[in-house]
## 1
Amino acid sequence: MNKSICSALGVIAACILPAFVLAQSGVVKQVKLSNFDLQSSALVNATGTELSNTQYHSPVYWFPVKVPSTVLTGLVANHIYPDPYQGLNNMLIPDASDQFNKEYNLEQYSHLPNDPNPWKKPYWYRTTFKVPAADKGRRFQLIFKGINYRAAVWLNGKQIADSTQMAGMFAEHNLDVSNIIKAGAENALAVKIYPLDYPGYPAKEQLKALGPFYENGGPTGDIGKNVTMLCSSGWDWIPPVRDRNMGIWQPVFLRTSGAVTIGRPKLITDLPSLPDTGTAKLSLNLTLTNNTTATHGGKLTVSIKPENFAGAPVQFSQPVVVLAGAEKAVELNADKISQLIIHQPKLWWPNGYGKANLYRIRMQYAEGNTVSDDTTFVFGIRKVASKAETTANGFVRRKFYVNGKEVHLVGGAWVPDMMVNRDSARYDYEMHLCRNANVNLVRIWGGGVTEPDAFWNAADKYGQMVWSDFWITGDTQGEFKGSPDWPLEGNVFIKNVESTIYRIRNHPSLLVWTGGNEGHARKELYDIMRNDIITLDGTRPFIPSSSGFAKLPEGWKGSWPDDMPSGVYSGGPYEWKDPKDYYKLADAAKDWVFKDRNRPTVTTTIYNSAEDHP
């Protein structure tokens, strides 16, 4: 068994000491758990309780993997399956659909001796790590940034989460393990990853020309029964991903803190006197949670300093008492705290309109000289807005504004890596390319994934506005095929929506939320999603869909805050056009006031007309 622990990643702290000890004791730190072992439950008879025992020894070989890693990514890295990015290698890997395997004779390639479909049963991820003895009595959280599709978790012989709690591809899961961690000793973690509830029948392989209308999402679109990466069953730009990207596809962290922890900070930047941008007002909301049976009285300190330009930092503190076992909401705003008024702020501007200036905010809660919790993130001072207006020919046109200035959106669809294998270096490189190409907006397409933190950090850095669809498409939610009753578990969809809003709402690059791509969720989910965006964020617009294909039924609320239609149109062309032909189409088509034609056949589509927004 591979028992080494990960390298360290410090949102707040972190160095790695010899013998894989987590870090210096008595400080707030966050460490990335990277080195896991992987094996199918078809070959492992042990229970989660047994696997999370440090004395466990396996009678079968386990594959070492670097998390984040889907199951197929790990098996390809261990040379069990050929690289599906190359040639026709995807036809040498069994699919998650039994019917598909039989039709294409893929069962013969299964690496499991008695299972022609290697993706039907769960897979185990296991690792061990040490915690310093000096950290005894501290608080510990296991943070799973993203799993697919369900997970159950055991630590040191005790189950701490089951597959009903951890479901869906886009939710972050924070698990309190303070009473289970063994300080000064080795700890064992076992994670059971379950495949998609409904892997679906995938799209046909692109072995010959299939015309412009490919079986996006499969012939029946039943991948939409899940809350997942819908294009993993195949689209017109991607072959079916054989395991549907089951696995731990985002990082896992162990976080150490004191008795009182900081949660869900929300930073709002306002420019109250637009078009004058000489003064910015900030407000900060957060939650302090007392995880003990004793009342704690401490001091919350907030500091703000420039991140990518020279300038003077500001700092202030205020006492906060948190009762035993209680949560306390803290609301700080410029009307009461003068340090939250920023004079002559350096604004965050999208690419082509100015520099993407960034600040860093740090929040610490301390009792005396002992820091209980410490967290930080980068933000930009900017204000976004949208306005819908009706043109002379009756079409609704939508405009967007940043810092009071109307911005011309130039960009296209952003689609995920086939096996979600982008890392922070690749995100940075690709966002840099977008900037150099004079792109200022990327659209997170609804059939893909809401990208991880590294994407948003790079977008912030390079001035890329982001148009973010939720995981609804007409090819799975009934607009073209599939069913409006999908996803089947509405509670999983909403939990994933809310977790996503909390995770990315502080990024200045996020321009607009949309309810999906060429479709919309059923009313019960649509209404909750729209309301959550307003109440949990409320700083940027929401539009019902990224396409004119999706017409809201009578009586449904429209965009927010104007309650107008999306003002987005679709219908092609879905291929490259000579610029002369392109402008003729733009002149002739009445609905080209605001065009969504970015079928994601490439990572970025550049728009040529001021009338042609993505």
Note: The chain has three domains: 18-197+245-255, 258-379, 384-588.
## 2
Amino acid sequence: MGSGCAPRRSPRGSTIGRTTVSDPLQVRLPRRLTAPEPGWVTEADVIVVGSGIAGLTCALALREKGASVLLVTKTLLHAGSTEWAQGGIAAALDPEDSPREHLDDTLVAGVGLCDEDAVETLVTEGPQRVRELVALGARFDTDAAGEITLTREGGHHRDRIAHAGGDATGQEISRALIAQLRRVAEDPGIEVIEQALVVDLLTSEDGSVCGVTLHVIGEGEIDGVGSARARAVVLATGGLGQIYSSTTNPPVATGDGMAAALRAGAVLADVEFVQFHPTVLYLGEGSTGQQPLISEAVRGEGAFLVDGDGQRFMQGRHPLGDLAPRDVVARAILERMAATGTDHVWLDARHLGADFLQRRFPSIVARCRELGLDPSTQLLPVAPAQHYASGGVRTDLDGRTSLPGLYACGEVSCTGVHGANRLASNSLLEGLVFAHRIADDIADRLQTGLPQCDPAPWPDPPRGMVDADILDSGHRLDVQRAMTAGSGPVRSASSTLKTLRRLRELADLEPVEAEPGPRTWETTNLLHLGQALSVAAHLREETRGGHVRSDYPERDDEGWSAHLLLLRDPEDGELVTIQLDVDLAWPEGGEA
């Protein structure tokens, strides 16, 4: 296996170059984070990490199939990204709609990089999984006849978005799944640990994943860092939104599962494709952290974008106008902002009326009014902000990663469904569908004797590296500023190199002042993923989907109809980048 990365083109399916120590593209990652030795041990058949739609669904399905499950979540069960999902869940539920039409819309949004088998799996299994959610107790909005009310969002040519509470779909789905989990709370075969941050993955001598190290903020035996061991580990840890200064993601979205998988040697794919939601409330210069999202469904009901002169600028830009795919709309906003020298545009929903807006979007209206805005009488200032990671830990159709025993589901994963840009409201569906597939696969393998393996000692570090490392939490804003400036919504060769140089400076800081703990581990995860993302963003010399390069403004199908795969070389800790032709098979899980 070659190592390193270089900005030159390579043959399809091969490693891209080798770097020198002075090359800013050279990234070397430690195998693990600095942490105390585990002080306690627990075991289960399967560890599920995360409590969004993917993690909760997988844990419940596994327990139903007889596996003992340890479900761990970073803060509280309801605190993940699913809770914040306004838009809805997409599925071909209308008799006049079809999975084929849903597939076509998804492929168009993914701009040539979707894995069609994965998309077909999503759209064909999706409707039944949504109906099962209803049977489980999820209350979607319905019409007078009791049928689920369906609406439309960007990139969809049919009304196929199911909502709950108007704009509180994720909250309702989370409520229903957690309620089901509470019903089995007395079951000794399922254990829930809240306030538990996964630090790193445990692997056996042959590289199989056999558990995690956990830090638990608790009392008694389960407190501090411990070792949780299992026959399989499912990562459902969500995205990496906090890698940027402004995001719609909650504070817990620090990419912990993705970073731990990368350090353990798992393959990541398509991490450069970050979706920036076009309509996020602009709160003024310097505003950071989680920003208020104005759901695409508002435009689905007839709202539209205008510039400072009141001119609509999406008409004629795309056949779907203001409901074009998110990358198209975000790019149009950025271009209009650059042309007019402004830092935001406006969303006009006034014509929808106060009564309709209050009934259809109660959460959005309430949040706007908290901020002194009334969407029924005022234009809303909006600008793109980070929203979703289309790439992640690479999996096959059963959620298996390149490391035996490790599965990934939801935003932490890269199933191939989203390609270069996620179609609106496909994320909840992806978590739901692939969580069930993972549970089926693990249950089958448990029945055929999937062994319980023992964790191997941490490997000796490569020469010149410490065996573990951390970046003090006081540098989190430094990471976010570097990523936003150089690897944000618009990038170039010079901007990504500047980001990589700054991140290397942070990585090379002496860690003596850093105190191991959740905030520091999160900051280090953001650093490691920032380095990986920026390398991929630098190497992809084209504009496609969520990836916008100002120095390569056109899509390049001849040179870049390909995925970029990233993994850590265990021999020297270097980040390896592989360009895989999109026409080559998406390998089965367990294969590097």
Note: The chain is about 30% helix and 20% strand.
## 3
Amino acid sequence: MDDTPALIEAAPPADGKPGGYRVLARKYRPQSFADLIGHGAMVRTLSNAFETGRIAQAWMLTGVRGVGKTTTARILARALNYEVPGEADRPTVDLAREGVHCRAIMEGRHVDVIEMDAASHTGVNDVREVIEASRYKPVSARYKVYIIDEVHMLSTAAFNALLKTLEEPPEHVKFIFATTEIRKVPITVLSRCQRFDLRRVDGGLITGHLKAIAAAEAVTIEDEAVALIARAAEGSVRDSLTILDQAIAHGGGSVSAETVRSMLGLADRARVIDLFEMIMKGDVGAALAELSDQYDVGADPAVLLSDLAAFVHLVTRMKHMPAMADDPALTEAERARGKAFADALSVRVLSRAWQLLLKGIAEVQAAPRPLPAAEMVLVRLAYASDLPTPDEAIRQLREGIAAFQGGPGGPGSGLGAGPGGGGLGGGAPQAMLRTVAADGRSGAREPARPQPAGEPTLALATFDDVIALLAEKREIGLKIALERDVRLVRLEDGRLELNPLPTAHPNLAGDLGRKLTDWTGRRWIVALSREDGEETIQSRRDAARRMAVDDARADPVVSAILARFPGAEIVDVRLEAQEAAAETVFDPVGTMADDLDGDFLVPDWVPSDFDD
């Protein structure tokens, strides 16, 4: 039943009088199992059950709105009471011809097929009437069928009253329940029913169905418009027909993509992709201008951001599932340009854009002025698209500080030196650092690629070389553990001896040895020793910081400031070069810290204070 069905239009009323206009969702409501789309598994189960005589006493149909629960219930009631004099006199799913009871059942007016809306009949008295009436045999049909829609709305007492009859109903009674909230139905009721989950209909099936209906209605419709309607329906056939009905009226008998976009407040998919490209290039001005243009022609800012998020999701799926490009629900622009973005962008960049958009959509929906809120989201996206990952930022910061310290204006010339002495006000080291930072940033999009195991390309002469290699390989958790939790005892080519602190994890040595062996192409032994060894790297850094604070306190200018403001303290000492290099680490609009999660390869034994 997964193919586009033949369209069966309901016959005119029995009195022969022409009726008024019927909406497409009613006019093309399925009349048999062959007309259903997307529910082949359920039809096969029922077909086998009817063939073998294993017919259940109750069924539970569940699914989101518009997938056909009530229609399926009527078709099932028709199949249970199917009768063609002289040809068929038993339940069947083959409903090719109209039987004696078929039209009355499908129109909801058969005396033996009772439909009840549980939303308006929630009490125990309503269920008591059903129980009392179920004792009497059907008037003309084979079975008396009770269809209870939105059954989850029944009260607890009503459910309890129904249990006994539902477990042991008379032979001539069948129950069909439908609900959109299956979790609200008591398990005692579910255990007495056969359950069918009517899932969302695939976009490709809805697309074919809409084209067939448009042809039957003699309506001209563009392929892109069909794709837009199918996407907006979100798997609901009824929603797709309702939107198509509105689009036909809106377009005066023909449906174009522009008509659908204008009607639903959607943005042009091609322009959404253009906006995405501007953001990934970091062109903030062009992105804001494009947002303003789309807003002027009726695009809703929140919907536009949702479309951007949907395109990010599409590109991510195409990166891992190239066959997605063949989806008939996609436009040509989405297929071609989505594949190009999937080849060009890393998962890290796409994940960061997805996280920012999810936060931005909520902000825009809650903002009193949606357009400025959407503009700020695009600014954050544009800046974040070019930011380095945390390990790359740390490496750039280290390289920038090293370049500064090796220059003529390094700290060795004295913290208190004046502008001409190469101290904090030195201009040449600052320019040098900015050059290094800029070069590093431009290359941040290309991650380091590990060399094949067994190919000796790395030489580790010092413990700092080991730390630098861990940073390069993105093993940040292991790097921090070596800096905090071990003292270096001895380092030789192929052998590393460490004195672990009580906070060190017992698997640290084995993990480090395996990784060094893989990366260098030769065997490395990492041994634990009881010798004291050197200070930890973290201890040396803390000592250097304390010394810098003491030197700063001794500076005449700083000393005068401390004396002028009683109670003031020196919190930290930072070189101007460090501040400049830090610009490559933090997001200019303050969102980088929220979006760096998940970029580290962190072992499960990383210290619990790693986030600090």
Note: The longest helix spans residues 301-320.
